[in-house]
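Whether sequence alone determines local backbone shape is best considered at the level of individual chains. The sequence in question and its structure tokens are set out directly beneath this paragraph.

***
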Amino acid sequence: MIAITGSGEYLPSIQSVDKKLLSYIEGIPKVLTFSTAAGNESDNRLLYWKNLAEEHFKNLGVEHKHIDARNRDDLNKSSVINEMNNTNFVYFSGGSPTHLYESIHDSEFAVQLKNIERRGIIAGCSAGAMIMGQKMIKGSGLNYLQNTIVIPHYGESFYSWISNTVKILNRGKYKLLCLEKDTYFIKSMDEIRVLGKQQVHIIFKKEHHTFSDGDIIDPLLLK
């Protein structure tokens, strides 16, 4: 299962949504969080993500471990691969989508990530969401969502540049999956649905489809 949101990772506003998301896991949730997208940022910034994740999942009452993996070499350490074998929920927070993609693609970690998609949940926010598309605003994605470019922070005034980017990309061949904060686009083997407080949008050429909590999305819209 893939679960991606535009923004709000680990904040109080998304806690109730994450509680519902964790309930989709069969068995006991075992959570790993990664701030690899921020791997080129300062130690203080990485500590911020670590502390935020630990407090968030402590409040949710689930087993959690934050992995200090800053780059490709870190992600592919045997200790990290072993942790991946014993988890059913992986969460990627924000930062640079390009750095995160380059750290994951064509690696043993990427193989383990595919296994988790089948048995649990891969979750991501902002950069962690962008890598799931076939393409990104700049460069390729991991192609968990074919024919798709994921646009996070949709509708947030600070990220108004995204609206202009959407207008440009909307002329292309890729579907635009636009994600608002505190709201997940969830794709499983059985269906595509929305969970959260705001909305998810699929934009392609002159079409604009909007979905809210509980809505089921026709897979053909992303073909």
User: Anything to note?
Assistant: The chain has a mean pLDDT of 94.
